[in-house]
Each structure stands twice: as structure tokens, then as C-alpha cells.
Automatic annotation (TrEMBL):
SUPFAM superfamilies: NAD(P)-binding Rossmann-fold domains. This is Short-chain dehydrogenase reductase 2a. Belongs to the short-chain dehydrogenases/reductases (SDR) family. One of its GO terms (molecular function) is oxidoreductase activity. Signal peptide: none annotated. Keywords: Oxidoreductase. InterPro entries: NAD(P)-bd_dom_sf (IPR036291), Sc_DH/Rdtase_CS (IPR020904), SDR_fam (IPR002347).
Amino acid sequence: MHEDIPEKPLGGLVMTVALKTRMIVGKFNVLLNNAGVLGNQPKHRNIVDFDVNEFDRVMNVNIQGTALGMKHAAHAMIPMGAGCIISISNVAGVMDGLGLHAYTASKHAIVGLTKNAACELGRNGIRFNCIS
């Protein structure tokens, strides 16, 4: 099942997808988080010129979309005692100086969020991976 998230309230949409999947398939085994926008940043490439509204938009989609995906997938997976949540980051999430500031910060955050969630939910049989 594929859903585009930018124009809908993120939490409600992710929860709806998880519930639909459980109803149709009977379980929710895997989530592939691929929330990401570059933003309209070329004109704001330098830190002294970046636009705070554009920065917030990129962070909202990239970080909040990923976090909400994890949250609602975990709700479905914890009772089963199993599951796999895969999040897509980018090379900008593990190396510095390769991208625009908001995008790079958001992809670093996805790596950290994935590691932290793995520590928390590994005991529930939920595996986490991050592809950079």
C-alpha cells in the first residue's frame, strides 16, 4: 500500500494505513518509511540565508512523517511481538557538507530516531533498519 503524505494530516493518515493493512491482510509486518522532501532551498543554500518557514516544512515532512510512521506501525506490531520498520535516510544523514541545511539536518535526525526507536522497541521483537 502506498500513500503520499504531504497534504494530509500525517498522524491520521499513517494510522489509517496501518489499520487498513491489518483489516485487509490480518497483520502489519513491515513499514517502509520514505518521507522526504528537499524543499525549495537552492536560494537559501547558505546558513545565513535560510528561510525558517522552508526549514520547518522540510523538517515537518521528513522527521514528523518518519516518527509518525514508526509510532503507528509500533502500535500495530507490539501486540504481535514482531515487525520490521525500515526508514530511508540519505548519505547526507551520515556525512556532512553534502546537502542543503534543512535536508541534511532532517536526514541526520532520521538516523538518530531509528537508533533510538530500535533501543526502545527491540525488546518487543521489532527490528529497525535505516538505509542511507
